[in-house]
Design a protein that fits this description.
- The protein is an alpha+beta fold.
- The chain has a single domain (about 20-170), classed as 2-Layer Sandwich (Methyl-cpg-binding Protein 2, Chain A), CATH 3.30.890.
- The protein is built from 3 helices and 8 strands.
- Strands 3-2-1-4-8 form a 5-stranded antiparallel β-sheet, with helices on one face. A 3-stranded antiparallel β-sheet has the order 5-6-7.
- A hairpin with a 6-residue loop joins strand 2 and strand 3 (about 45).
- Residues about 1-20 and about 175-183 have low confidence and may be disordered.
- It binds zinc ion.
- Zinc ion (ZN) binds near residues 38, 41, 43, 66 and 67.
């Protein structure tokens, strides 16, 4: 698995709308790292895992992430990773709720890089792709506890076009491909 190289460039790109981001490895559409951008210095900090990432994401507007929320980290430290085209980046919307226990939120980049599909994996291993399905599921499974459909968000992260490989950008064909890639 590739490591993001630490870049000491002082001007890590500031992306306008979302401060939380998931990063996806080119080609295999597997997320290799989660990063959050500091509200002060705009550097990107890698998160240890998805749970950590979601903690910052869910509360982003009320309590923006800053470097010193990570122990031993300050804005003086070089960025953990830089926003560039060495990987494809996808940007989650801020304030997406933390995934309820037992569930997993899966973001899959389409092979033509056109968009990301979001689905949830239930504790029983069922994949759910939209809110109505989740409402049915929660009704059928009261044992999941006091969880409401609003604890889930199917809002797709945005694919950052600047980080998509050039040959794909220049050739936006095959966008009619079926979304059946999901497995
Ligand atoms: Zn900072």
């Amino acid at each position: 698995m590739e490591k993001g190289s630490a870049s000491s460039s002082p001007e890590t790109e500031k992306t306008p709308q979302a401060t939380s981001s998931t990063k996806i490895l080119t080609g295999t559409s597997v997320i290799v790292a989660y990063a959050v951008q500091c509200d002060n210095c705009y550097k990107w900090r890698k998160m240890e895992n998805e749970e950590h990432f979601e903690e910052f994401r869910c509360n982003h507007s009320a309590d923006p992430f800053v470097c010193n929320k990570l122990s031993g980290t300050t804005c003086e430290k070089p960025a953990d990773i830089s926003f560039d085209s060495s990987h494809v980046w996808v940007m989650d919307k801020p304030n997406i709720p933390k995934t309820p226990k037992g569930f997993k939120r899966i973001a899959t980049l389409r092979s033509d890089y056109s968009k990301v599909d979001v689905q949830y994996l239930t504790p029983q291993g069922k994949k759910i792709r939209a809110r109505p399905g989740m409402m049915d599921y929660l009704q059928e499974h009261p044992e999941c506890g006091p969880i409401s459909p609003s604890d889930f968000s199917f809002e797709a992260p945005k694919v950052m076009r600047d980080t998509v490989p050039k040959h794909v950008v220049n050739n936006p064909a095959s966008s009619t491909k079926k979304k059946r890639k999901l497995k």
